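Troubleshooting log. The previous structure file for this entry was overwritten by mistake, so regenerating from the original sequence record. Sequence copied from the archived sheet and checked twice against the printout by T.R.
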Amino acid sequence: MNTIQRIGISIFIIFFGSVQSMAQDNDERLLSLNEVIDMAVHKSPRAIMARHTFRASYWSFRSYKANYLPSLTLNSTPFDLNRSYESITIDDGSDQFVERRSMTNSGSLEISQRVAPTGGNLYLSSSLERVQLLTGNKTTTYLIAPIRIGYRQPLVTYNAYRWERKIEPLKYKEAERNYLLTLEEISRMAISYFFDLALAQINKEISETNFHNNDTLYKIAEGRYNMGTIAKDELLQMELSYLTSRKAFNEADLNLRVARFNLKSFLGLTDEKSLSLVIPSEIPKFKINVDTALHYAHEQHPKMLSLKRQRIEANRDVAEARAENLFNANLNATLGLNKFSEGLDNAFNNLENSQMVSVGVSIPILDWGVGKGRYEMAKSQRELSLVNIEQEQVDFDQEVYLEVARFNMQDEQLLIAAKSDTIAQIRYNITKQRFKVGKVSILDLNVALQEKDVSRRDYIAALRDFWQNYYRIRGYTLYNFKRKQKIEADFTRLVE
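Regenerated output below.
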């Protein structure tokens, strides 16, 4: 057991040994730091919101993947009644309006498949149309196309499918890493609320102890004043200390209630039990290598995926602007069988071949430089994005480096804080005894009291800094340095 652990355990025994008996007497829930973190990442409202945010990203990715699977579509017009007057040209060349009444029923079934490498669409369809005339000879005719295969292909244009296949998987992977990062941020918030309550507990204990001590010392000062061994101003100073300590005790009690409420609200606890905390006495003893931290930060942090995605998106925007500045062409071709018949009994006999090929071309002749302007703007925006990405990368590495350096000096900071707390407590006890026998002044006693209180709070602050630094590095790297393993989650269970 190292020195800092022995000092921490000693402080824990001296100052927090009575917490469990208090919890039992007052029906309080006793929680350690690890328990608070575990509750925060599994049950807190923020953790629930993080899960739902991830689920939204998951289903968005599933929808993207489904777009590249074969789709089956049924189109049907079961009832289309038309009664109108239409213009027709008769034999003498004049126009005449005639009444037209008809009933149309149609349906088609189509299977389509996106072709990502080319940006085209392959489809297979079957259709049937029935037309019944309700005027004249009232004939009924059928148009059947039992099979038709077709392909639609944009030529010399921007292929959105190809860019989607690069970007969407990155966005989903980024969502996974963001979920893990959010859990680490929730852990840091839990640590902050934990030590807010821990400090409130300490302040309550300090203020209560100081109140009782000042009450006793004030009574001693009254006796010494009556004997003529101290002056009136010293007695008044002691009375002022007593009143100040009473005020501080009342404020500390209120602050403790507020801190308990804040932690319970953050954890989503709705029961009537109060909370008391066990201050961590054991601190993990290890150093973090900067190069190792940077390696995992580059490999694991969602920011790296975000920067990679931003590079691809910048190139995509340039490709899209470039394609829009050129001519656009579209190919649409179909091959199949069809038949026109006045009855269904022979509609499938002697089917005839049908072919259709069309090419549409759109060429910008004069756009006054609009297309070129969009293209040049996209290129400039890409260069600007690349510069920002490089700067963000440098800033990120610097943040990781500084955080690791700050963490690696925490051992010494904790040791200093622990020793200072122990020394200040011993010095105050000695000074208080010397004051009782009249060997030190009230001023010396107040200085010792302030140093004791400050040192005790500084130790709690040092503990807070240690755990905040550690979980901040975990957030940067998504790596558990204590267990020497990557931070992961069962994403399959999250979407069940």
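Confidence is low (pLDDT under 50) at residues 1-25. Archived copy saved in two places this time.
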